[in-house]
Amino acid sequence: MSQATSPAELQTEAEQFRSEFQSIRDAVGQVIVGQQRVVEATLTAILCGGNVLLEGVPGLGKTELVKALSRVLELDFSRIQFTPDLMPADVIGTNIMTADENGNYNFEFRKGPVFTQLLLADEINRATPKTQSSLLETMQEGTVTTGGETYHLEQPFFVLATQNPIEQEGTFPLPEAQLDRFMFKVVVPFLNRDELNEVVARTILRKSADIEKVIDGPRILHLRTVLDRVVVSDPMRDYACRLVLSTHPDTEFAPEKAKQFLRWGASPRAAQALIRAARVRALSQGRPHVAFEDVRYFAAEVLQHRALLNYDGQAENIDVAELITECVNSLPTEG
Q1: pTM for the whole thing?
Q2: Distance between CA atoms of 100 and 140, rounded to whole angstroms?
Q3: How confident is the model at residue 4 (pLDDT cuts 50, 70, 90)?
Q4: Before 156, cis peptide (omega within 30)?
Q5: 139 and 13, same structural domain?
């Protein structure tokens, strides 16, 4: 398929993107009750090549969401249940000694479950930091290096990790370096009354939804080339940068609450993530150019896990997401 070069062609691509985006959301909605924001954020990260950290209590459909996406997007799917005794070799694979028909011994690499396209790292904070770090290379470079050999994972490749924010006994909090590799941190809220009734009704009646694929891996890779051509003007880029700087307490852009309760702000990866997410948001609305509202739309998901509270913020149990909202609301569009 030829690349769009003129504004008219890019507008046509935007309309097609909006149609496909809506079709994917509708297909996933046949399985997942409610959680529209969660579905939209996860889909946005996948389309622009980002990893997602889903945070929520058990039973809210996080695993079902990932399974549904793997079917709708026709991607290979693997699931790893992280436990304290899980080892890096259980994730990436290991070299084993084999013998041929002549009795000669040699080492053969047996691939682990990370060799897939959509990887669900379930309860990732239950594994030790050593095992958690085995995902860092795959999340950033899409490769696995072991025994001096580098293996390239089939693209597109994504890591969707889950963690329980309540039960902290026997868990290992993710280090900042690994949190920064997640494009989004998405908080999965509890269901309301109607949604909970619908979930119970579906499980009692055992309604099985047959969802069909909407797009596949090669189409996702093509859509990324479309995203790269979405217009990001200088004021939009500068606004994203100022938004990131507003989470740093020692800058002129930080509101009073950020200066009072934050110890450190988001990294340059956050500015890149804001622009990438804004491009998806713009196309999903049928626009081939980014607006201020697109940059703001996923600010909480991009910034809340990258901003660190200071001692006062931790002592007063400050909600980081509310601080991010304060940063967004207080930042003027023209700086």
Answers
A1: 0.85
A2: 36
A3: very low
A4: yes
A5: yes
